[in-house]
Amino acid sequence: MRNIRKSAAIAAVLALGALAGCAQDFLKLGNIEPGADPGTYRWRTYGDMATPHDSEQAEELRMTALARLMRETPGCADGYRITDRKALLRQVTVIGAEMHDIYYSIDCR
User: N or C end of the chain, less CB within 10 A?
Assistant: First the structure.
């Protein structure tokens, strides 16, 4: 019984570490592009099995990544607001996991 608890604790720590690394992955695997109006942008990122599009925890990680990105985006260092969010199903894996592209509309004006 003691080994089971120890194994569960180790697994929990590893899972938290993996999720913490996800914020950086959102930056590497996503992209940001200028919007139609000056001071607006569109950020594309993703939702997968580890970071589902409808998970509050995963959304917190995405928001951490977005805050980092916006600090480095011209005209947005003083603040921004998200004006729209859309999650579009990209594919369903062979094991039934859904992969989404998530788009955020951002206004820095």
Answer: N
